[in-house]
Specification:
This protein is mostly helical. It contains 16 helices and no strands. It has one domain: Methane Monooxygenase Hydroxylase, Chain G, domain 1. The radius of gyration is 26 Å and the shape is globular.
Length: 309
């Protein structure tokens, strides 16, 4: 009986010669193993801008400098560098979204956030590549990393500040380098994406508390009943407040995606180093786990509890 079932299934998957089933125009194409270069293809590139020169490939591809001779260190470097490139793009989009919101130009700001979410998905998926690094492989070059740690990533800290996780203590890590410290200190002291949004709601006539829209932005954000009340007004009548509602939901998406990245980082670290301390000096996984309780947009979560009341 079991055997008959296998045979029946096997019949379903009998390999067919695809080329026999394709329309005439595609037939020969499938079997080619050589593609001649077409006549119009540029091959004399003297004095021209090329792919390699435009993208500065010699510089980009010279930036992977392992400190050990262990095979797996290249993956470790590239995973970090690719993340830094995506963080660069994220910051580019975030700054643009914030500038647009600051002048109440909301539709293109929503477009920026849509792209940010796709980048975040990419950054999340990327962890699966580093997860192929086993503890045995990592331990062979870990000691050579000294105190270097992602905790010292200036771009990551920039994203945290732009999204609103303000913590002046983080600046200490950059005190040795004014070129990193100064722009981060400026971002710490400026309104976050969320605060730009709250300020634009205020300009649009929503009744936001004065001490929320104008405060010392370098201090951690504190939730406010008045902000929950504004969001309740928005969620209670979507037709009347559609654009604000759309922005609220985009922000919730961005926060969730950011949390997913933090979670996946924590799980990757857990499977690679267990509960060892971090190279940057923290307790490791338990320190990373604490970040999962942080929220950028507290009232946007809180209002959900009151929906339908
Ligand atoms: C073998 C892989 C990795 C391990 C074992 C690891 C481990 C750690 C640990 C233990 C911390 C806490 C700070 C410390 O004490 O060092 C940390 C922080 C951090 N790591 Fe990783 N990490 C890895 C890969 C990555 C990658 C690929 C990135 C991408 C850029 C990254 C970005 C960060 C960031 C941004 C922080 C700061 C997080 C925060 O402030 O909450 N890490 N990492």
């Amino acid at each position: 009986m079991a055997r008959r079932r296998i045979e029946a299934n096997a019949e379903l998957f009998v390999p067919v010669n695809l080329t026999l089933r394709l329309p005439g125009a595609y037939r020969g194409l499938m079997n080619e193993s050589f593609r001649p270069i077409e006549e119009g293809v540029a091959t004399d590139l003297r004095d021209e801008m090329t792919y390699a020169s435009y993208l500065q490939l010699p510089t980009l591809l010279a930036a992977q400098q392992p400190v050990s001779d262990h095979h797996d260190e290249m993956l470790f470097i590239i995973q970090h560098q690719v993340t830094e490139l995506w963080l660069k793009q994220l910051i580019h989009e975030l700054r643009s979204a914030m500038a647009l919101i600051a002048v109440d130009d909301i539709p293109p700001a929503l477009k920026r956030l849509a792209r940010i979410k796709v980048i975040q998905r990419q950054m999340f998926e990327q962890w699966s590549v580093l997860e192929t690094l086993t503890p045995i492989e990592y331990v062979q070059f870990r000691d050579q990393l000294g105190k270097a740690s992602g905790f010292q990533s200036p771009q990551y800290r920039t994203v945290e500040f732009l999204l609103g996780n303000k913590n002046a203590g983080m600046l200490k890590v950059f005190a040795h380098d004014p070129a990193l410290h100064e722009p981060l200190a400026a971002d710490l002291a400026a309104p976050s994406l969320y605060e730009e949004f709250l300020r634009s709601l205020d300009r649009a006539g929503y009744d936001l508390p004065a001490d929320v829209i104008d405060r010392d932005f370098s201090q951690p954000y504190e939730r406010h009943d008045g902000v929950v009340a504004v969001f309740k007004t928005i969620y209670d009548d979507l037709d009347a407040h559609w654009q604000a509602y759309e922005m609220c939901e985009e922000l919730v998406d961005v926060e969730e995606s950011f949390q997913l990245w933090r979670f996946r980082h924590m799980k990757t670290v857990e499977r690679i180093i267990g509960f060892k301390r971090g190279t940057g000096g923290s307790s490791g996984v338990s320190f990373l786990r604490k970040a999962l309780d942080l929220t950028f947009f507290p009232e946007l979560l809180e209002v959900r509890t009151h929906i339908g009341e």
